[in-house]
Write a structure and sequence with these properties.
about 120 residues; mainly alpha
């Protein structure tokens, strides 16, 4: 069997085509749409690169905060929401503010890495 390109390599190839070939030949709405597509692909690449470790860190924080062995981050987040809603967890709960800040920084690192406050917040 031959080695097929990985999903990451395929996305990088399409992004490179958009950036280096298509966009330089396009104008108006077509150029705008090519930039949007390139930005979307860049987000997907960051998602592939950063999300697994960020989700593992989020799961670890949630498990510690909720004293839970649940492995599903979605379920842990639902549990956290319920705990906040009924008042068992609030900003005075040790670890909550750190968790919220860290989760937001990780999400911004994927969605908006150029956000001006990201570097400041990450300190």
């Amino acid at each position: 069997m031959h080695d097929a390109p990985s999903a990451k390599e395929l996305i990088e190839a399409v992004k490179s085509f958009l950036d280096k070939t298509a966009m330089v030949q396009l104008q108006g709405h077509a150029a705008f749409h090519a930039r949007v597509a390139s930005n979307a692909l860049a987000t997907v690449l960051r998602e592939m690169e950063l999300r697994p470790a960020a989700e593992a860190r989020e799961r670890d924080r949630l498990q510690a905060l909720l004293k839970s062995h649940e492995a599903d981050v979605g379920k842990l987040n639902c549990q956290l929401c319920e705990e906040i809603q009924v008042g068992r967890v609030d900003l005075g709960t040790p670890g909550l503010l750190t968790h919220l800040k860290s989760t937001t920084i990780d999400q911004l690192s994927v969605d908006q890495p150029g956000y001006s406050g990201l570097r400041t917040a990450a300190r």
